[in-house]
Specification:
Blueprint: H1 2-24, H2 42-52, H3 54-58, E1 76-79, E2 82-85, H4 102-111, H5 126-129, H6 134-144, E3 158-159, H7 168-176, H8 190-200, H9 206-209, E4 227-228, E5 236-237, H10 252-261, H11 274-281, H12 286-298
Antiparallel strand pairs: 1-2, 2-3, 4-5
Helix pairs in contact: 2-6, 4-6, 8-12, 10-11, 10-12
Bound molecules: heme C (HEC) (2 copies).
Length: 302
């Protein structure tokens, strides 16, 4: 009798365990959603590449000039959980992503899922890239495949238990991974909507300019209000809402100037982690930079 009860308990436990694992298995993109996109436009892919700052993390540390197009990885990203290392995403088939299908690539970008179905860490900012449209992802993929190969092996991450278990990211995703737009601006002018797409999607401005909770989730009700530097240290990331004491009185064009040149209206130069962002974003057209400015004037003030 007792033996049967224990047997039943074990079976029930196994069943619950299996249900638990299924519930935590990260869901992938619906392949049907990717069927109707047009052929790849490599020129647009290059623009998306600069807007989304891939080189900032995936170029070898210290690379300059054309070497920034060799996405060999290796940069260490410090966090409260340890150090993440950006992997090699060059078209090398063995050490990079040259062998990945477009579907696999799109799942990494929009679902945070790796090639073998595993969770990726949100140090790859898929929490923003999820808002990118599939055509841009297609074009970006095609552009990446034109870049030089690197045979540098990716470095393992150096993070603490339990965060080194990728399944733990499933809990995090359930709580903090949301594709909804953080600012409700439905009836806004087309340039504001274009700026919204760039800021909330590819350019991932909120990943640094929005404060995070204890578990690293973005506080969407404080969208772009600034806060402590997510990479630790005692740096501060400024408030860039219209209520900001610093840029509240900049015009949309002055914001665009800053992104284009790296100079503030007072001729201060851009600093900190914004230097890398400015270098990448400055490749965008003036119209896109003005659109970012227009969006930053249209969102609610802090
Ligand atoms: C803020 C830094 C950062 C930026 C910006 C960034 N990545 Fe990453 N990326 C990472 C890190 C760190 C990982 C490793 C994540 C992991 O191991 O779970 C990663 C992983 C990846 C992977 C999975 C690689 C693999 O071997 O599993 C792909 C693909 C990728 N990134 C592509 C991109 C592309 C394309 C862009 C630009 C649109 C980009 N990343 C922008 C940091 C970044
Ligand atoms: C990797 C983190 C990071 C990302 C991503 C980022 N920023 Fe910044 N940003 C900063 C930091 C840090 C500063 C402070 C720079 C300084 O001290 O000069 C800053 C400064 C600024 C300023 C000037 C504010 C001031 O008070 O001087 C503006 C405007 C700005 N960012 C806009 C943006 C926009 C728009 C985006 C997206 C295209 C963006 N940032 C993405 C980290 C980031």
């Amino acid at each position: 009798m007792k033996r049967i009860t224990i047997g039943v308990l074990i079976v029930a436990a196994l069943f619950m365990g299996a249900a638990f694992v299924v519930a935590l298995t990260p869901p992938k993109l619906d392949p049907d959603d990717l069927r109707n996109i047009a052929g790849a436009n490599v020129q647009n892919g290059e623009k998306v590449f600069w807007a989304s700052g891939c080189a900032g993390c995936h170029a070898a540390p210290g690379a300059t000039g054309d070497d920034r197009l060799v996405l060999a990885g290796g940069l260490g990203l410090d966090s409260h959980y340890g150090t993440f290392h950006a992997p090699n995403i060059s078209p090398d088939k063995e050490h990079g992503i040259g062998d990945w299908s477009f579907y696999e690539f799109a799942n990494a970008m929009k679902k945070g899922i790796g090639r073998h179905g595993e969770n990726l860490y949100p140090s790859l900012p898929y929490t923003s890239y999820v808002r990118m449209n599939n055509q841009d992802i297609r074009d970006l993929h095609a552009f990446l495949m034109t870049l030089p190969e690197s045979s540098a092996p990716s470095k393992p991450h150096d993070i603490t238990f339990p965060f080194n278990i990728r399944l733990s990211v499933s809990f995090w995703k359930l709580l903090y991974f949301d594709s909804e737009s953080p600012a409700q601006l439905e009836n806004a002018a087309p340039d504001v909507l274009r700026g919204q797409y760039l800021v909330e999607g590819p350019a991932h401005c909120g990943e640094c300019h929005t404060p995070r909770n204890l578990f690293g989730g973005l506080k969407y009700d404080h969208w772009l209000e600034g806060g402590p530097n997510p990479e630790g240290g005692d740096g501060i990331v400024p408030d860039i809402t219209p209520g900001s004491g610093d840029i509240g009185d900049w015009t949309a064009s002055e914001i665009a100037d800053y992104l284009e040149t790296g100079f503030t209206p007072d001729y201060d130069t851009v600093g900190g982690s914004m230097v890398e962002v400015q270098k990448n974003i400055s490749h965008l057209s003036r119209a896109d930079l003005e659109a970012i400015g227009a969006y930053l004037k249209a969102i609610p003030a802090n």
